[in-house]
Specification:
Keywords: Cell membrane, Membrane, Transmembrane, Transmembrane helix. It contains eight helices and two strands; from the N terminus they run ββαααααααα. The protein is mainly alpha-helical and 232 residues long. It folds into three domains: 55 residues, no CATH class; 31 residues, no CATH class; 130 residues, no CATH class. It has a two-stranded antiparallel ribbon. A hairpin with a 5-residue loop joins β1 and β2.
């Protein structure tokens, strides 16, 4: 890129004709399009005579808190320079939002379904833990009479679900990896595979499982043995 400095670049066309411009510097690519696409060539032209540059678009940064009066002032300047061209404008934030509208919608849907899946899983695990604990209520009472502490009983009840959660992670994580890889392949400019996210999701699922089951386990472990062993 440094070799281009000082050379001439011909721009323009149409009614305004062609213009030669000397290259005074080269900057890094800026993403003004969706990162699914390669950044096309961009030329920044400095001139005190916009009418000589086939100027059709310009980017303006307003100060924070600027009012609409600033936009009206820009419109008056535009009409003074190019009265035959209608003044049309877009906010850069709106352009970027529209460029990534599909990705934003996918993210919102994914967040909703993730929340629903977490809630449904927790409810199902809660019901399974309650059913399993009810079947072992007399065993828990006997263990408590024989000296088992509340912590030991809770660990016994909670630990039996760890293998189920671990097996579920071994099934889900590879599927999530391949889906994530295929999705990232759609982007020319992309991040590396976030392996830490997979580890965090596995830890999060274990934490949710432990908290859900612990509610049932603690209730069963602190119950009076006589209530579980009495005969009707």
């Amino acid at each position: 890129p440094e070799e281009a400095v000082g050379q001439l670049l011909t721009l323009g066309g149409g009614q305004d004709g062609m213009h030669n411009h000397q290259i005074i510097g080269v900057v890094e690519d800026s993403h003004y399009v969706n990162v699914k696409n390669t950044v096309p060539p961009m030329t920044y032209v400095l001139s005190a005579e916009p009418k000589d540059l086939s100027l059709r678009w310009t980017s303006i940064r307003f100060k924070a808190g600027a009012s609409l009066q600033g936009l009206k002032d820009v419109e008056q300047i535009w009409l003074g320079l190019a009265p035959d061209l209608a003044f049309k404008y877009d906010w850069i934030t709106d352009l970027f939002d529209s460029s990534y509208r599909n990705e934003n919608q996918q993210t919102d849907l994914l967040n909703v379904f993730t929340l629903l899946a977490t809630v449904v899983t927790a409810i199902g695990l809660f019901g399974l833990a309650a059913f399993n604990t009810q079947r072992r209520v007399k065993e828990i009472a006997v263990r408590k009479i024989l000296g088992a502490s509340t912590g030991q009983l809770c660990f016994m009840l909670v630990n039996q679900f760890s293998s189920l959660v671990i097996i579920a992670n071994f099934i889900a994580l590879p599927l999530a990896y391949f889906l994530m890889r295929d999705w990232l392949d759609n982007f020319i400019y992309r991040i590396n595979m976030p392996y830490s996210a997979f580890m965090l999701s596995a830890v999060f699922s274990l934490v949710i499982a432990y908290i859900t089951v612990m509610v049932i386990a603690y209730r069963a472990a602190t119950a009076k043995p006589v209530d579980s062993l009495h005969c009707e």
